[in-house]
């Protein structure tokens, strides 16, 4: 089993995060109908990319090859940049080992028979971010299907928890409890910051078309695969109010990329999609995440 960090205890750092998360930033506002439609279009394109990739993939593909295929597909559909570079994880990397949820370096792992794969992409379309993740397997995988059924049920319940501010304040603990009761581990505890979700943004013309990313040196690998426009937005809004970790008790109004990620045994599974949160109401933009694709167990030529 890959290393899994437990949620941090509510020490002085946790209390500071709780205090800062209560800041109502410019993100914690109700979206206009035009903005909601813009995010819906961006998310639809992101799911189209993931599903087109899954339909093409075969055993023998590498993580690096798959990331490059997704990048080419998105650029071919008019995308200039994205919140983060495409992330592809096969087999053991779907477990999200501590601080390792990131694009594969080089070719990475090779897709094998019966492997689970996670495809994650976040195109910026006309300024709107569509950040999604999609889990598939090679051939039939009953354990993955069971995990996906659990995630679908969790997805159905999440809007109700966000619509109620009291429940929304404790949504991280609630998700962890649901996973534990079903025999799963909460894999986002292996993410930097234990991020269960994060706000996404509408970007201006420059950030929407800026195709460059920060160099790994001196900025480090994590910053190097995030778009500068996104980094500037989240830093200007104090980071912690924008990331839904175990201590986020602030307002949830706005739009969130929610990414519950579980793991069991030798694989992990997740979904990621956009949740609109209004005063007293919350809803997903569409149901494209619920379309399941099975990769044929036929090696690539």
What's the SSE blueprint?
Elements (H helix, E strand, L loop, with lengths): L11 H10 L11 H24 L6 H14 L10 E4 L25 E6 L2 E2 L2 E2 L2 E7 L3 H22 L1 H5 L1 H11 L3 E2 L10 E3 L5 H5 L6 H4 L1 H4 L3 H9 L6 E2 L9 E5 L2 E4 L2 E4 L2 E6 L2 E4 L9 E2 L6
Helix pairs in contact: 2-3
Whole-angstrom Rg = 18 Å
Q: Provide the succession of SSEs.
A: HHHEEEEEHHHEEHHHHEEEEEEE
Fourth-tier CATH superfamily name: Creatinase/methionine aminopeptidase superfamily
Number of domains: 1
Low-confidence stretches: none
**Largest sheet entry:** 5 strands, antiparallel
How many alpha or pi helices?
Answer: 10
What name is given to the CATH topology? Creatine Amidinohydrolase
Widest β-sheet, arrangement of strands? 8-7-9-12-13
Would you tell me the overall average pLDDT?
94
- Helix content range: 25-40%
Note the beta-strand portion.
15-25%
Number of separate strands: 14
User: Which of globular, elongated, flat, extended, rod-shaped describes the shape?
Assistant: globular
């Amino acid at each position: 089993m890959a290393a899994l960090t437990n949620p941090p205890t509510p020490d002085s750092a946790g209390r500071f995060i709780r205090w800062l998360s209560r800041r109502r930033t410019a993100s914690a506002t109700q979206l206009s109908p035009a903005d909601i439609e813009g995010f819906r279009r961006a998310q639809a394109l992101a799911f189209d990319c993931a599903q087109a990739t899954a339909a093409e993939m075969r055993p023998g593909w590498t993580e690096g090859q798959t990331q490059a295929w997704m990048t080419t597909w998105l650029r071919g559909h008019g995308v200039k940049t994205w919140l983060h570079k495409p992330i592809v994880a096969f087999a053991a990397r779907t477990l999200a080992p501590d601080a390792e949820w990131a694009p594969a370096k080089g070719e990475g792992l090779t897709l094998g028979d019966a492997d689970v794969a996670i495809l994650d992409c976040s195109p910026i379309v006309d300024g709107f971010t569509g950040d999604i993740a999609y889990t598939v397997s090679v051939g039939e995988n009953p354990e993955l299907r069971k995990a996906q059924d659990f995630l679908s049920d969790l997805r159905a319940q999440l809007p109700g928890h966000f619509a109620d501010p009291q429940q929304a304040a404790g949504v991280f603990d609630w998700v962890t409890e649901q996973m534990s009761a079903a025999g799963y581990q909460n894999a986002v505890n292996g993410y930097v910051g234990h991020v269960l979700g994060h706000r996404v943004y509408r970007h201006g013309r420059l950030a929407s078309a800026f195709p460059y990313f920060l160099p790994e040196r001196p900025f480090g690998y994590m910053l190097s695969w995030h778009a500068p426009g996104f980094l500037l937005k989240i830093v200007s809004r104090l980071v912690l109010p924008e990331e839904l970790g175990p201590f986020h008790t602030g307002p949830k109004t706005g739009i969130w990329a929610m990414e519950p990620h579980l793991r069991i045994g030798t694989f992990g599974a997740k979904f990621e999609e956009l949740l609109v949160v209004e005063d007293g109401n919350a809803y997903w933009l569409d149901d494209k995440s619920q379309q399941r694709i099975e990769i044929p167990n036929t090696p690539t030529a």
